[in-house]
């Protein structure tokens, strides 16, 4: 016979009750942000999954506020990922030599871009911008320095930060 501790039962009761009370409300809130019922349901479910993954849910005093914060973060990540995918597909459409890419190749490329994007989130906004200008707009360091209003040596430092973050992926 398996015994369930009081803490586990209380945790399950809290999570189940909060899910029943707030899932519909959270899905509707996220739906207003993303405009898609399916995406809203996925994001709300992910928010509850993160809530369930927290160690001590008994200490949560305002579960809806916490769920809102989690869901908004997930929504921003969703938007960033969607924008990155859209940008990649636009670039792919403009490059005729890559127009024959298989769906698997496209998915792999998008996954790799998402990994790079995640790695670049650990560095400053200017370092990210310097990296993007260098790699995607093919600007030289002097042009990047002018555009960012920094010195060329600062651009070198930004690029070193970006490349270090990307190398950590391997």
TrEMBL record:
Q: Name one Pfam family in it.
A: Sigma70_r2
Which InterPro entries is this protein grouped with?
RNA_pol_sigma-70-like, RNA_pol_sigma-70_dom, RNA_pol_sigma70_r2, RNA_pol_sigma70_r4_t2, RNA_pol_sigma_r2, RNA_pol_sigma_r3/r4-like, WH-like_DNA-bd_sf
Q: Domain of life here?
A: Bacteria
UniProt KW keywords = Sigma factor, Transcription, Transcription regulation
Domain named RNA polymerase sigma-70 region: which ranges? Answer: 19-83
RNA polymerase sigma factor 70 region 4 type domain span: 114-166
* Stated family: Belongs to the sigma-70 factor family. ECF subfamily.
Q: Which PANTHER family match?
A: RNA POLYMERASE ECF-TYPE SIGMA FACTO (PTHR43133), RNA POLYMERASE SIGMA FACTOR FECI-RELATED (PTHR43133:SF63)
> What is the designated name of this protein?
Sigma-70 family RNA polymerase sigma factor
Q: What's the source species for this entry?
A: Duganella margarita
**Source taxonomy:** Bacteria, Pseudomonadati, Pseudomonadota, Betaproteobacteria, Burkholderiales
